[in-house]
Amino acid sequence: MGSFSSPMQGGVVSELASNARAFPVLSRSEVAELATAIDVGLLARERLETSIELDDRDRSDLATLVSLGHTAFIRLMHCNLRLVVSIAAPFARLGVPLGDLVQGGNIGLLNAVWRFDHSKGFAFSTYATWWVRKAISDEISAARIIRLPHNAQVRLAQLTRTEEYLESELGRAPRDIEVADDLGMDLVRLKDFRSAVREPNSLNTLIEGTDIEVGQILVDRNSPSPEGLAETQEMTDVIRSAVKTLARDESAVLEMLYGLDGSDPLSYLTTADVLGVAPRDVRRLESISLAKLAHPSRRAVYKDLV
To answer: pTM higher than 0.70, yes or no?
Structure first.
C-alpha cells in the first residue's frame, strides 16, 4: 500500500486525538473493504496528479474516490488506536510517559496502514502489532539519555511484564527474589541488570521541596572557580598589554609563539614562515623580548597596567 501526500498526513495526525474506545473493532471483511478504498483513493490521486487529458466529470469522480480513500484511512487508523494503547501500556513503567509511547505507537500504526496488503490474507492487527512495537521501542530508545542495545530493551520489557503479572497475582509489589524466580534468573544477575539499565538522573532535576537544581550544589573540583577565571583573564590582559610595549617584530613573535592574540600557538618554523625570517631569528627575537619583559626597569610599566 502506498501513501497519501504529506498534507493529508498532517491532517491524519491531528485527527488521532480521539478516544480509542469510541471506535469499534473491525472484522476482517471490514478491514479489507477499507484497505481497498484506500488503494483506490491512492490510484485516483496519482491519476489526478499525472493525467492531463481529464474532463471536469472525470476529475470530479477521481476527487470523490480520493475523499473516500482518505475517509477509509482515518477509520482504519481510529479503529486500531485501542491496539496501540494496549501495546504501549505495559511499557509505561520504563519511565517514558504513556502519552509519548502512544504517540510513537501511532507512528507505527501509520506505517502499518501504508504498507498493509490485504490481498495476502494477513490479519491487519497481527501485521500492525509488529510495526507498533517497533515504533514504541524506538520511542523508548530516543527518550533515554543512554540508548540500550536491542537485546537489553527486549529483556527490560520482559522484566516489566513479569513485574506487572506478579503484582496482579500477589496483590502487592513483587520482591526481587520472586521476580528472579519467575524469570529463571539469578538474583544477583537481576540486580546487576536493573542497575545497568537504570536511567541516570539529570543535573537539571530539582531537589525535592526546593527550586534548586542538583547541578547547582555539585562542585567540579577540576574546573577553575569564577574568581580564578577572572584573575587568569586579568593577568592575560596585563601580559598582552606589556607585550605591546615591545618593538613590533618582538611583540609579533611572542603573540604567535604563545597564542597571545587568542589563536593557537605556532611553532618556531611556522612563525618563521609567517614573518619571512629564519627559525634562528625567531628564537633570537623571543630571547630578547623575554629578557626585556623580565628587566627590573619595566616593573613600573607593569604596575601602571595593573
So the answer is: no
